Fold these 2 entries.
Entry 1:
Amino acid sequence: MSLIEVKLLKIVKDSGSAQCYRVLFEEMEGHFVFPVVISALDARPLLAALDDENDRRPRTHDLFCDFIRNTGYSVVRAEIVAFEHGIFLCRAVFEGTDRTVALDCRVSDALGLALRCDAGIYVASTVIHKLTALLDVEKTTGRLRTAREQSPEEHLRALERKLAKLIEEERYEDAALLRDQINELRPKN
């Protein structure tokens, strides 16, 4: 599996839901930016790690990082390895003196470990390709494209129909990504 290193740009409150945050990632070369939606509860420890907050008592990610270090392992990287049915599948990779271990985990846990343990964040190239197709993004420029033979208004209406279908199918992660694309295409007043 081919992995692409990404950097976490920021974590922002999702304008569409008070219960969600968007974690924005960018390829290291800056060609492609994509969001991952997480709950407000999962966002708190990530925001604390980004702000370098040190509590008097360790948070769960701090405790686990300390445990890993004390066993002779280190957190090597967080990997987003698949995007299926609107869900990102992740794993945390640990390295010891005699072996490497990869454990499946939630995206927020993989990111929390990577941030707290200064590990890299990587995304499978297949995920980037899938998101590129989903977001209809031109990979070389990162700019949104409209459909070739549609006016901008027709293209926007087609995307809104697609959004309604995604919501009807309860594919909320896909719907959030498409909603962001629609918001970028809407004329600014």
Entry 2:
Amino acid sequence: MNETHYDKLKAIIAVYLPQDVKVDDIQKDSHLMQELNINSSHLIDVVLDVEDAFDITIEDEELERMDTVAGALKIIEQKTQA
């Protein structure tokens, strides 16, 4: 797993964390909505920011696999290697 991608993704997610969740709570196995309390509208913002930051396009059918930090990283790594 690419640590640079992980750090970049954490920075993107951190912007959308509610006040009761700290950046240190972001772990590779964290569920974005259930554990990090990111609401559905912010989840779309996370996806858009990921697309911009990594210069990739995330298809609709890939969105459900982006429910965890690890799932998002897997998609990012697949798309950036292509």
